[in-house]
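This part of the workshop introduces the protein records we will be handling. Getting from the letters to the tokens is the skill we practise here. An example says more than a description, so a record of this kind follows:
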Amino acid sequence: MGRHPDLVRRSRGRAVRADAAALVNEADQDVLPALPVRQRSSRSITISVALQRFAPPKRERSGSFSACRRPERPCSIFRSMLTIRAEQLRVLAAAREACFMRDLEAHVRRHFPAVAEAQSPSALQASLRGAVARATALGLESPQDLCLYANIGAVLGWEFEAAPQHAWIGDLLRDASIASTSHRLRLAVNEVGRRLSLEEQNRVTEQQFKATAQARAGST
């Protein structure tokens, strides 16, 4: 699976053109920056980060429980309250997940229009869901990281990790010697951009060489 021809990379606010559109725009913060993040507090119900499979939150002892005379068997009203609260959290998380996916689709349509137009809406949505699932399986969680991973997919092909020529990306993203998954992703983004820039330079040089050769041939 080759990269799409209409691509450009943005790095630290400067665009490096590969053909026409943006490869990776790390400054693009418009894809739902306020998604729920994993809560670290042991006193609250864990809310999984957006786009992961949401497991039922664990119910932990609260001030209401400690006020019960028999905390080992809380009364039914407290059980009902906790059930409702957990369900509300799941509904909220699902709604934010759906909102993120809509914003991610809009992002791809805006920055990679040729890629988006090459697929039907349902096919594009399926491609994005697959990309997000693979990204979260790698440990990428923030909206920005998920968006960057999707950008690479739009450039190199949605299942780029399965392509032999891009196997190095998967190896880098799984490199346990680099502790931060976000840092691995940014290293991959930088290297993809460098290679695309080099490819573009080689393409321009080749075109110039051919044009010069043709001009010399025509003058003889």
Q: What stands out?
A: Confidence is low (pLDDT under 50) at residues 1-21, 29-71. The two ends are 42 Å apart (CA to CA). The CA atoms of residues 32 and 204 lie 38 Å apart. DSSP finds seven helices and two strands in the chain.
